[in-house]
Amino acid sequence: MGRGRVQLKRIENKINRQVTFSKRRTGLLKKAHEISVLCDAQVALVVFSNKGKLCEYATDSCMDQILDRYERYSYAERQLVEPDIESQCNWTFEYSRLKAKVELLQRNQRHYLGEDLDSLTLKEIQSLEHQLETALKQIRLRKNQLMHESISELQRKERAMQEQNNLLAKKIKEKEKAAAEEVHNWEQQNNGLNLLPQPLPCLNMGGTQQDEFLQARRNQLDLTLEPLYSCNLGCFAA
């Protein structure tokens, strides 16, 4: 006996509804993957459960690229069909597009932080892991490059400081040598002056003192000669 046709209506039993959703979701994702591989088509599938849980599939995990392509195609087609569309509708569409893109970026950010991973399939988790490993390699490469540049800069500064220290040490040695030569020359000059004969002491008088000294000397001579004059005069008197 063949299987009866399932009537399409809402399943009232919560457990049966959840089981049916899980089975149909798995089958839908499988069909989307098959058509993507067999027909070389770009497929994007987005499913929200009644509790708001997201389930998605994209060819080669390129959901952003497929959505951007869909938005460009949809916008261009709408412009051709309705060339006189009002600007308010354009703003509404742009708002919806940007809102969807922001939600997608926020969801990807949560995935990169390790959150909300229950809705991802094994292939999507492997793709996420590969993206994180690639990003980690790039970060480490950049970090090593910055560390190498920092070390090179410190080595350059060290060489410059060493050259400056050598120059200062050379100048100090030159000044010490010149000072030692000056001290040596000064000592030789002092030794030469000590060997010369010392001058005799001389009487240094002013003009007035010298005149007084000469006058006193004349008086002494006059006193000495005065008895001689007296004797000579006495002889002439006799």
Keyword list:
single chain; 238 residues; mainly alpha; SRF-like; 3 domains; disordered C terminus; transcription regulation; TF_Kbox; TF_MADSbox_sf; transcription; protein dimerization activity
Task: Describe the structure in your own words.
With 238 residues, the chain is mainly α. The chain has 3 domains: 10-81, Transcription factor, MADS-box (SRF-like, 3-Layer(aba) Sandwich); 83-119; 121-186. It is built from 5 helices and 2 strands, in the order αββαααα. It has helices at 14-38, 63-81, 87-112, 122-195, 207-237, and strands spanning 44-48, 54-58. The protein has a two-stranded antiparallel ribbon with strand order 1-2. Strand 1 (44-48) and strand 2 (54-58) form a beta hairpin. The chain is rod-shaped, with a radius of gyration of 60 Å. Residues 199-206 and 228-238 have low confidence and may be disordered.
Short description, anyone?
Residues 88-178 form the K-box domain. The protein has 238 residues and is mainly alpha-helical.
Q: Write down how many β-strands occur, each being a DSSP E stretch of 2 or more residues.
A: 2
* CATH architectural group of the largest domain: 3-Layer(aba) Sandwich
Q: Could you give the order of strands across the largest sheet?
A: 1-2
Radius of gyration: 60 Å
**CATH-defined fold name of the largest domain:** SRF-like
Task: Name the poorly predicted regions.
Answer: 199-206, 228-238
The CATH first-level class of the largest domain comes to: Alpha Beta
Helical fraction: over 70%
Q: Helical stretch count?
A: 5
Portion in strands: under 5%
Q: Which structural class matches the secondary elements?
A: mainly alpha
Distance between the termini: 211 Å
Query: What is the typical, i.e. mean, pLDDT?
Result: 78
For the largest beta-sheet, the strand count, sense and barrel status come to: 2 strands, antiparallel
CATH H level, superfamily name of the largest domain: Transcription factor, MADS-box
- Whole-number total of structural domains: 3
Shape: rod-shaped
What sequence of helices (H) and strands (E) makes up the elements?
A: HEEHHHH
GO molecular function: DNA-binding transcription factor activity; protein dimerization activity; RNA polymerase II transcription regulatory region sequence-specific DNA binding
Domain MADS-box: 1-61
Coiled coil: 125-189
Subcellular location: Nucleus
